[in-house]
Each structure stands twice: as structure tokens, then as C-alpha cells.
User: Fold these one by one.
Assistant:
Number 1:
Amino acid sequence: MSLQQTLILLKPDAVQRRLCGKILGRLEDRGLKIVALKMLKVTKELAAQHYAEHVKKPFYPQLEEFITSGPVVSLIVEGPGAVQVVRDMMGKTNCRESAPGTIRGDYGLSRQVNLIHGSDSPESAQKEIAIYFRPEEILSYDSTLAEWVC
Ligand code: RTP
Ligand code: MG
């Protein structure tokens, strides 16, 4: 499986509920490597760019209101098959239908207020990474200190 990068957002509910540390911990525990990370407020323009496929859907006004309602944490993680690995860790869109052991299944009950976004394909990942990060914000590094930590 090839090394992939994928775009993750810890949505406003994750920030407001102080769950970012737990969610980032799960991603790191799985072995995914954080190569970019920042906090920002999603504007209406950014929301429309990110969720272009949903802009015309009936639920978009609520999605826009939610995703622009407070700061998010945006990050890129890297790993073998990272796009699908993260999607599997997230669970289903509706938290109530998400299996225990997934992020949405363990921390959420809502269909819309669902803690985390992850790119749904390698193509979406490339597009979303370019929306949220400039190339110089994405770091390339070896984990040479890992042996010392162990
Ligand atoms: P995301 O894009 O945020 O990672 O979530 P997803 O792939 O699991 O779900 P998607 O279908 O792409 O929907 C994007 C976000 O829109 C909200 N949503 N509300 N019927 C509804 O009320 C509805 N459907 C979707 C959710 O916040 C979902 O994550
Ligand atoms: Mg999606």
C-alpha cells in the first residue's frame, strides 16, 4: 500500500468539547504521522470550497452554520493507505450509526455534529490539502527520535 496524505478537520464540536487531544491521540496511536497542523476559523467561502459537492443540498445551510460556528483544527496525516484508514477510524457520517471503537461511534450522537472530517478519496485529499495548506506548511521529516522515546 502506497504512502498517502489525507486532510482531517477536528470540527467545532471537537474543539468546544475539548476532545482534540483524545482524537489526535487515536490518530497517533494508530501510527499516522502528523505532517501539518493548525487552528483556524472556517469562513463561509472556505466552507463552500471544501464542501462544494454539498452546496446545493438541502442540509447545506445547517452544515455551513455548524462548520463556521467556531475554530477547527486542520491537519494532514501521512501513512500507508491513510485515506481509508482515517475514514474507517471516523465511523459513519451519522454518529448514531457508527460502531463503538470509531471516533464518531465513541464520542457522538448526531448526524451532522460529528466531530471529524476526513478526505473521502486520494483525489479529494489532494484537493482539500491544497485548500487548507500552503506547500511550505507541510513538513517532511524522519522519525529518528522514535528509538530514543522507546
Ligand atoms: P465529512 O465530509 O465531514 O468528512 O463527512 P462525511 O464524508 O461522513 O459526510 P458527507 O456526506 O460528506 O457530509 C458532509 C457533512 O455534512 C453534514 N451532513 N448533514 N442529512 C444531513 O443532515 C447531513 N448529511 C451530511 C455532516 O456534518 C457531514 O459530516
Ligand atoms: Mg465527506
Note: The chain has one domain: 3-140.
Number 2:
Amino acid sequence: MRIVILTGAGVSAESGLGTFRDKDGLWTRYDLAEVATPEGFARDPAKVHDFYNARRANAQSATHNAAHAALCRLQASAHDVMLVTQNVDSLHEQAGSRDVVHMHGALSGALCARCGDRWTAPLAMSPTDLCPSCAAPATRPDIVWFGEMPYHMDAIHAALLDADLFVAIGTSGTVYPAAGFVDIADGAGADTLELNLEPSEARSAFADARYGPASEIVPAWVD
Ligand code: BV8
């Protein structure tokens, strides 16, 4: 069976990484326009680096949970699985998953806004860091901000059109284009399943759903 999995912040919540839109979520404490847009970065790069430096430190001390481990087992099964994540942490990789499609980038990456070179981010980035290729002081986290094009969209789109099953796990279904994947897969004839703590905004688009903490419902579904 060809399966496309889309994960969101809910899959890492039990690893201690905060979600975005839940009570006490990141976007209730930070202004998204200031820290997660190219315009915000242009206005105050130090503030944006501080935001991502803190999240990078948090993510580095986090441990994957039973949901990440179950998805790794699914990838190792006979099924053909594309694992797409909106998360910028590396907990799927820490659990052993390979070829994870990071559509919103990764905290572990640095990107030169001038020449496009990419390299491994240091734990703390700063506006004075120079690009190792072109020496421009234009380094930024390799994160897809609002208003920017998410990565790997052609490959994801092709997999959705070819999928037998699309499963969204721990995502609120509010950020596009990821929120529209269920409609693409459904339109192409795939079965669709939502695994989440509670019904998401996109619940009505899914044929089936199971609710509870990801560390319980994902292993129960996989095994
Ligand atoms: C684009 C940065 C096209 C990384 C992120 C109006 C105005 C402006 C823009 C738009 C607009 N309308 C549409 C848009 C486009 C915009 C968008 O969708 N905006 C929304 C908010 C309206 N999208 C974009 O800009 C995207 N780009 O469209 O490009 C384009 C075309 C032409 C030219 C240029 C571009 C770019 C989107 C990427 C944004 N980057 N963040 C970072 O700092 O991390 S998005 C951010 O939201 C995160 O990446 C996150 O992954 C993503 C999705 O959130 P979720 O993962 O779903 O997290 P959330 O907190 O919302 O939900 C958690 C869920 O888990 C909940 O349902 C909860 O119940 C559940 N849960 C909690 N605990 C558990 C659990 N489930 C299970 N177990 C648990 N224990």
C-alpha cells in the first residue's frame, strides 16, 4: 500500500516541544508576523535568531516518543511510506526514520539569504554570522516562513496523487498548503484518516478519524 503521512506539532507535544495554536502554544506567546515571516526577519534579525536559537536548544534536548517510533516501524514495513513533516525538529530522524520530507525546513539547517548555500546550523545563530560560501552577513535559519514556498512540493503532490492512504497526525489543519493535502489525496481516490488529540478544523475532510494522545493512538494504529 502507498501511504503518505503528514505530521504536525502534536506528534512532538509529548516530547515536550510546544505546539503552535493550542492553549499556551507558541503563537499565543509570540507574534507570528515578527518571528516567522521574511518581513519580520528583515526588521529585527536578532529577535528572530533568538526565537529559533531557543527552539533549537529545546529541540536538541528533546527525546522522541512512541508515536515517532511507531512511524519508523511503519516505514520499515512492506508498505511504501512517504513521511512528510511540518515539524522543524529532528525527532523522526532520532527515532530512526529516513528520508523524512521536511516541508517547512529544519532547525538544524542554516541558509544564506544571498547565495542560497545551506549548512548545518550552529546551536546559536546571530545576524553577524557570515555565509561560508559568499561571506555575506545574510545567514538565516533554514525554515519556511509564512509567505514563503514550502519545500519538496512537487514530490509531495505526486505522492498524494498516487497514494492509497493519506494520514494526518497531530496537525490543526490550519496552515496551507499542508492543510489542503487531504483534499488532493481524497480527490485522487485515496482513503483518508486523521489521528489527533481532538477533531481538527479539517476533520470533515477525512473519511475516518481516531482521537487521543499521539503516543497511544499512533502505535495502536501502526501495530
Ligand atoms: C505558502 C515556521 C505559497 C516554522 C510555519 C492569509 C494571509 C497570509 C498568508 C495566508 C493567508 N491564507 C493562506 C495563507 C498562506 C499561509 C497560511 O496557511 N496561513 C494560514 C495561517 C492562514 N501559508 C503560507 O504562507 C505557506 N506558504 O502558502 O506559499 C506561495 C505562493 C506564491 C508565492 C510565495 C508563496 C508557508 C507555511 C509555512 C509557515 N511556517 N512555521 C516554525 O517556526 O516552526 S507554520 C507552523 O504551522 C509550523 O510549521 C507548524 O508545523 C504549522 C502547522 O501547525 P501544526 O503543526 O498543525 O501545529 P498546531 O499547533 O496548529 O496544531 C497542533 C495539533 O496537534 C492540534 O490539532 C492539537 O489538537 C494536536 N495535538 C496536541 N497535542 C497532541 C496533539 N495530537 C496528538 N497528540 C498530542 N499529544
Note: The CA atoms of residues 71 and 189 lie 23 Å apart.
Number 3:
Amino acid sequence: MPGDGIGKTVLPEAIRVLEAAGFEADYVEGDIGWEFWCKEGNPLPERTIKLLEEHKVGLFGAITSKPKEEAFNELSPGLKEKGLVYSSPIVGLRQHFNLDICMRPCHTYKGNPLNFIRRGKENSVEEPEVDVVIFRQNTEGLYGGVEWSNPDDKVYDALMTHPKFVKNFGSVPRNELSVSTRIFTKKATERILRAAFAHAAKYGYKSVTLCEKPNVIRETSGMMYKMAKEIQQEYAGIALWNTNIDAQMMWLTKNPEDYGVIVAGNMFGDIVSDGFAGLIGGLGFACSANMGDEVAVFEPTHGSAPKYADYDVSIVNPIAMIESACMMLDHLGENDKAIKIREAIAEVVAEGKVRTYDMMKMAGRPDVIEKGAASTQQMADAIIEKLK
Ligand code: NAI
Ligand code: MG
């Protein structure tokens, strides 16, 4: 499922690398994204759901999402009358297949100039070694979509009579009220916690850090902390650390080397994983897996980066997509090939001869495109060369 924008550029490169590593597979292309919203009024066509039901494993590039009104305006003639409302197809996929476990590994690539620059330690000789895996609950919490503006009678009455609401806010007119809920279920919370501990045990991490805010968000974060303590009892060699998300963002910039497995609810997991991604080179390196009981979808953390999508020669970094494909190999029991590819990537980065623009010093300054930056294809070629 290449999707939109740079998803279309990086996914074929990952497939070339998979083939070079000797992974044998048939690829079936799934339609998803903006194009299908505009043409069909549905960015996640039923046929794509069917494909995943049948094949169980997906590689996904990225999609474009736009605000409600803009999305509506881009619908093809004849579709506007149907009153369709756009919703993100990747969020839709996660919900449809209950891909409730999101796994985001972040590890340092030795020799990546960004290791120093991003930490303000450009002239340091000591290279930080980050090796963390973030487990983010992927379907609930603040992104669960249960929210209201100008709420109906039932919700409004429930709020107006809630003792905490009365105490903290008094009475608020209905039309001045917006509410987004943060829903945690025991079932999903237990699943993400267990996935985190199991991963720590399997790969020898010494700690699992629960990154929430239980002292303030007592019911949801509090429940998660209580459950984490119970589950930790089953893992004698693994420590449970409990940090607050705000402090965690400070700690990870100061001493990211200290952390192993991190587990969090949906939003805090989203935030903390972007924080760690920044330390290892940014979105060009951040990979992820969305896993359910039946189906798993592997995707780079980045989006469709529209401003880079229409270059004659594509310049974005394919490593995030290729690393996501490695996670797929792990999932399929082809770990040996994943290791080979990861070693090839590490070599290319360490040599420093082939670097996409984002790996260069001025990356992030939109007015500067570095001279000598490699294209997306050249980066994939360099990795493939190492696999030979
Ligand atoms: P984005 O991740 O697409 O791009 C942000 C910036 O990160 C880019 O402008 C670029 O500077 C950098 N970047 C991203 N991927 C890169 C790569 N592979 N190599 C080098 N640099 C890279 O996020 P943005 O701009 O907020 O969103 C663009 C569109 O993507 C929106 O429509 C958004 O809704 C969608 N999106 C989709 C996601 C998904 O499909 N899972 C996730 C995030 C955003
Ligand atoms: Mg994010």
C-alpha cells in the first residue's frame, strides 16, 4: 500500500532491498489514500480491506490527510452530494483490524552526523548510543475519537453534574464546550503492557519504562501504572520505571542511553517516540509496526511529505521505510534477512559517502538543499550494494 506522496517513492525502494536480501514474496498492490478519496469518496476501499484479510501482512508507505472542509472540496463531481466525511485511512486500518500494538524502535546509527548535531554536541567525540523500543497503544486514549463540541443533553447533563466539573469549571454554556475523552480499557492496556514486557524479556532489555502521568491523570494513567506493577511481578529480571511524560521528554534529551523498552498510551506514546526519533536522525530513520492478533502493517513513522513528493529526482530518505520492512521480516520469522539489511544500512551510514539531504548538516532548513545529497534511489542502491 504505497499511498500518497513520498509513500509512493520509498515503498518500491524497500521492495528492491527486500529482493536483494533474498526475501521471496509476491506483492499485491492495495489502494489507499487521497487519490481514492477524491475519485471514489473512500480513502480506504473495501477491496483493500479484503486484501489484508486474505494476506495478513501489509507494507504501507504514507497517506495524505487534510482538514474536513478541504477534503470535501477536492471530491470529484457527483460525490459532494453524498455528504461524505473524510477520515484518515491509516487510522481506519488500525481500528478495523484492531492493530492495537504500535512498536517503534529507535537506535543510533553510528557515524550519522545528526547524532551530534541534534544534541548540540557537534564537536563531541563521545557518540551517544540510543537503543530503545517504544510500545504505543494504538487505538484508544485521546485518539479514540470519542469527542463532542456543543454536546447533546445526555453528555452535557453528565458533565454539569460531575462533582469535579462543578468544582473546577462551574457552569459552562453548552455551545462553549468542547470535550475529548481519554478512554483506556483494561483489555487493551494489558495487551500493550504485556507486549512491552515480552519484548524486553526476549531481547534482553533491563527495564520497561511506563511513560504516562499517573499522579495527575489518575484514572487512566493510574490504571495503567497499577497493571504494569502487577505484570512486572512475572518478570523478575526486568525493572519497571515509572516516569511522567513531561519529565521523560527532558530525560530523553539528557540521557537517552539509559532507556530500554518504553510503554505508553496512544498520545504519550506518539510524543515520546517522536522525541526519540529526533535523537537518532529524525523521520528519515523512524520505523514502526502496527500489530493486531491477525494482521500486521509495517510503515515508516513519517507522512507523505507533500513538499518533497513532486521532485523530478526523489530526495527523501528511504531508510525509515526499509527498516519498517525489516520489522516485517522479523514478524515473518525471516530475522536473518532483517539482520543482513540492518547491517548494510549501518555500513552505508557509517561510511558517510551516500547521504540523503536529511542526513546533512543544514537539514531542516527549507531554504537549503545540500550540495552532494544522494537521491532516494542512490541510498537504496548503496544499501543493495552492501548486500551483494
Ligand atoms: P511528514 O512526515 O509527511 O513530513 C514532515 C517533514 O519531515 C517533511 O517535510 C520532511 O522535511 C521530513 N521528512 C518526512 N519523511 C522524510 C524522509 N523519508 N526523508 C527525509 N525527510 C523526511 O509530516 P507532515 O508534513 O506533517 O504531513 C504531511 C502529510 O502526511 C499530511 O497530509 C499528514 O496528514 C500526513 N501524515 C501521514 C502519516 C501516515 O501516513 N502514517 C503520518 C504523518 C503525517
Ligand atoms: Mg506522530
Note: Strands lie at 57-59, 101-107, 131-137, 147-149, 178-180, 207-212, 239-244, 261-264, 287-291, 296-300.
Number 4:
Amino acid sequence: MNDRHAYAHSTLKKTLSERLPLLCRLRGWRCTRGSFEESRAMKAYRDFDTVSVNGQKEKILVSVRLRPLSDNEKSRNEVSDWECINNSTVIYKGNNPDRAMLPSAYTFDRVFGCGCPTEQVYTEGAKEVVFSAVSGINSSIFAYGQTSSGKTYTMSGITEYAVSDIYDYIEKHQERDYILKFSAMEIYNEAVRDLLSLDSTPLRLLDDPERGTVVERLTEEMLQDWNHFLDLLAVCEAQRHIGDTSMNQMSSRSHQILRLTIESSAREYQYHHLGARNSSTLTASVNFVDLAGSERASQTLSAGTRLKEGCHINRSLLTLGTVIRKLSKGGKGHVPYRNSKLTRILHNSLGGNARTAIICTMSPARMHVEQSRNTLLFASCAKEVTMNAQVNV
Ligand code: ADP
Ligand code: MG
């Protein structure tokens, strides 16, 4: 076995052992080391190459990330009420009076405890969805959660790991030519703004019969290299709308969508050699979506502007939840994409063939228990998941 084979072999083995429990759970198989189910799962995993249910590729990957207690929370003697007991279940271990009424264990595709680095969150909770765009399938990655739960921390890390990983991939796949394009927008109070332009006039959404919803006049930068990408991220950061609420001074009250479009085509020498015409051009986008805080408007001493923001945020998050829920059940019947700008813009990257990853972020602090429960409820509704009334730990 040469070095390349050895590397490929060890990667496959590692991937299998990481993904096996998930595959078994999705298929309802009992999985113990060396069992018949394990060898069946190994074979199924190789056959489908990616996690699949009944032969269909999983379209929605839902995970939860618990952040550590912040210094502020620690200084108020807050305690951590949540714990990840394995890589797919998070449990409530506090003694809230209504504990008996609510589920205490929540199971998702993946859960990430407070010591988990963002790189692992990217690799296990988003990477395969990101890479579907390299093979021509649109995708979206969302960070959902209350203000200060770690959405921006998580999503900005994931975006950087993803783009760096795509550059690595391109370098290793010289048989194709790749073009990366980047655009960025913000939705604040249902108005769409270009984060790569100094002009803050709201952008219109147009319905194009071929391309679906198009954001008119949105800047699209052709990425030259990694440093160019970092420069553009800095521009977005500076432009992003931030308001101060009583919960978090710099809390974000807008949705941010960073969109990377990947175009690739087979290199010329290849199709000359094969005597064929280049018909294998692929184009797809991956959207990195940092959603506005999911807390209710009433929690942020709402009045005037803040209340209006809260209403818009609630409506768009509610629509997003409904759209994702309907899609996870096969997308039959009416899917209300048109009820919010967020879902209209993402229409082509949600449902159909598209892949979606949702990373729900939460604070472990007791003071946030109600919001954490709402976040877990959103995550549970996004996908049919197991919620046990009690678990023994
Ligand atoms: P949000 O975007 O949800 O409002 P942020 O991403 O701004 O929240 O996170 C709030 C604070 O918590 C920031 O100071 C951030 O650095 C910190 N933080 C968030 N998640 C983590 C984490 N997993 N590990 C360490 N610090 C975190
Ligand atoms: Mg944020």
C-alpha cells in the first residue's frame, strides 16, 4: 500500500467509525462493536457514500452547539443546566419545576458540548452540506438561536473553515477549472441590503422564470484568493447592521447571508483528449446564514423600533421553521417560501435537491432555560427527532 492509499484508507476508517452510530440510529439498528448490524452499516455506508435514509440522501442535518458559560454569566453565579451525554443527545439536568412536563433529553444528528472546537462543528455538522455545492447542488447552513448564544461565533468560523477547505480541494483537483464568486446581504426589517456596497438603498427581489428569485443589483465579487476573501469578510463585518438591546449590547437584529457560488468545468486538455465537448459545467451556491436572535420581541424591553424589528424577525423565523419542517416531510403541499424575504432569497437553496444544515446554538445558563427550550423545539421541529420524557444518567 503506498502513502496515498494508506492515507485514504485511514481517512475512510476514521469517517466510518465517526459516522456509524448516526447511520445506525437513522436506520433504527442496534450498533455494538463487531455486531452484525455494524458490518451491515459499514456496507451501507460505503454503498451510499453519505448518510442516507431508505436510500435517500439526508437533506437536512440538524445539530445543537452548547457554548461555555460566559464570564458575565459566571459572575452572576449562573450554573450550567445542560449537558451533552454523547455525540447526539443533550439533556436538561436542572430542577425547573415544570421539568416533569417537558422532555429532558433531546436527540439530533449531532450535538456539540461546550468544549467542542468550531472546526469539529464544521467537519461534523456542515462540511458534507458545504461540499454538495462543489458537486453542483445548492446548499444552506444556518445558525439559529437566541442573541449571545454563539451564532456569529459559530457561523463565522464555519464560513472560514469551509472556504479554506474548498480552496484546498480545488488545489487537489486540477482536472477542473474553478471560479468562486462571493456576495453578501443583510435582511433588516424585511429590507435587503448589499453588504459589499456602500449604497444602502434596499435591493429588490425579482422572480426570474429560469433562475428563481434574484436579488437585483447585488454585488458579486469574483474571489482572487484567500486574502481577498478575508478582505471581503471584513467589509461585511463593518457594514452589518447592529443595534443595542438590553440582552446584548452588540446583538444582531438582522439576518446575514454570505453566499459563495462555485462554478467548475472540465479542463480543456481533457475533453480534447476524450474528443468530447465540455458539457460538464457545474454551478451551485452555498449560503452561510447567521440568523437574527430568536428571542421574542417582548424579552428585549421592546418599544418602537425594537418592537418592529422583533415582529419582522419572528415572522421570518416562523416562516423559515415552517418551510424547513414541510421540506423535511418531503415538501408536499403548499410551502410558504413567499411569506418572508429570507425564504424567498433562499428558495433555490432550500428544498428540491438542495441540502440544508441547521446549527442551533444555546447558552447552558439557567437564566436562559426558556429560550434554550424554544431553540431545541425549533431544532426538533426542523426534523423528526427523538424526545424522551426522561433518561437515566
Ligand atoms: P450571537 O451571534 O448568537 O448573538 P455571539 O456569537 O456574538 O452570539 O457570541 C456571544 C459571545 O459568546 C461572544 O463573546 C463569543 O465570543 C462567545 N462565544 C460564543 N460561542 C462560543 C463558544 N462556543 N466558545 C467560546 N466562546 C463563545
Ligand atoms: Mg450575532
Note: The CA atoms of residues 233 and 282 lie 25 Å apart.
